[in-house]
Amino acid sequence: MISKIVLASNNPGKLAELRAMLAPLGIELVPQGELGIPEAEEPHRTFVENALAKARHAARASGLPAIADDAGLCVAAFGGLPGVDTAFYATQFGYPKGDANNVKALLEQLRGHEDRRAALVSTLVALRTPDDPEPLIAVGRAAGEIAPAPVGEHGFGFDPVMYIPELGGTFAQLPPEVKNANSHRGQAARRMMELIRESWLR
What we know:
Pfam families: Ham1p_like. By secondary structure, the chain is of the alpha/beta class.
């Protein structure tokens, strides 16, 4: 019986969200940093390939099953970019890495664009072993548009500018439970829970 899974990330926001969402399975989620596992290389151009690389790295280093999330912002006006480069988006424009600078750079680059459609995408990959031939893959996508300025106090990343029309606010304006119910990571985590139940816990 699987009782512990390594999360191939040290991002506290991701850890908190995924811990809350996976809690019903009764599985302990341990961040790789607690086990002394360094970050994996992410050389690929798609979310699924990078998530697979991170999960394999964490499973190999820990000897435990691993789960990895690769997520990013896909902006229609930029042909789907920044995509896998989302975390480092600001550095392309001379700013230090960080959420606030990412938002600042995005708003600057979108100035003058009428098309502000965007989607936050999360791809979760889970492996029983580093060589698991049947990785579990779950994808979530939250579509909306980029707000003209940051609004709201919750969340992280691009949440303050990710406006979801049907919810009437940005992800940062929504209570965490409402965001988790509708977010890209929330969608992917719910699907992953189903897959883990079906494939690993029966």
